[in-house]
Amino acid sequence: MSRLLSTILMTVFLAACMPLTPAPVEAPRATPGVPVQANWTIRFTQSGGIMGMMREMEITSDGNLKVTDDRTGKTVTGQLTAGELAQLSTLMGGLAYDRPSGPTSCADCFNYTVEIGSDTGKTFTAQADDTTLEASGLSPLAGYLRTLMENALKTQG
How many of the other CB atoms lie within 10 Å of CB of 112? Predict the structure, then answer.
């Protein structure tokens, strides 16, 4: 009987010592791959550098492409091939973004912003610069988007 009473008292005592709410857990910085919905739009911005570049590109899930180079005043439109669109979807689906922990002091770096919106209304935004791009996990997607943007500007030149 005393053993049962001791066990009950110990259980009550330990339960009283437990916090009512769990301790806050810091949200992970890593973001799992972006779910590619049926209808999506991706916006890519490359800015900065020594010459103050400002280029923006928007691609929709049907492959429509629009690129604007603010420094030159040039805007081009186009259509991605099925292969380019498939590669882009693969890169978006495999994205594992780890946001940089703080600002960098790279004055002449390029800054990259990727914003992916879906027909569900959810938006994913990722940012990095030349010094944080590789560690952020954004490099493969940003590199591919930059290539698409440069090719569009050359082709329509």
Answer: 25
What's the distance, Cα to Cα, between the start and end of the chain in Å?
A: 91
For residues 109 and 129, the answer to whether their CB atoms sit within 8 Å is yes
Phi, psi of 146 (to 5 degrees): -65, -40
In a domain, 62, yes or no: yes
Q: Is the pTM of this model over 0.70?
A: yes
* Measured distance CA(151)–CA(131) in Å, rounded: 24
Euclidean distance between CA atoms 154 and 157, whole angstroms: 5
Asked if residue 22 is part of any domain, the answer here is no
Q: Are strands 40-48 and 53-60 parallel, antiparallel or unpaired?
A: antiparallel
pLDDT in tens, 63-104: 999 999 998 899 999 999 999 999 999 999 888 898 877 667
In a domain, 45, yes or no: yes
What percent of the residues of the chain are helix, what percent strand, and what percent coil, each to the nearest 5? 30, 30, 40
Q: Which domain holds residue 48?
A: 29-148
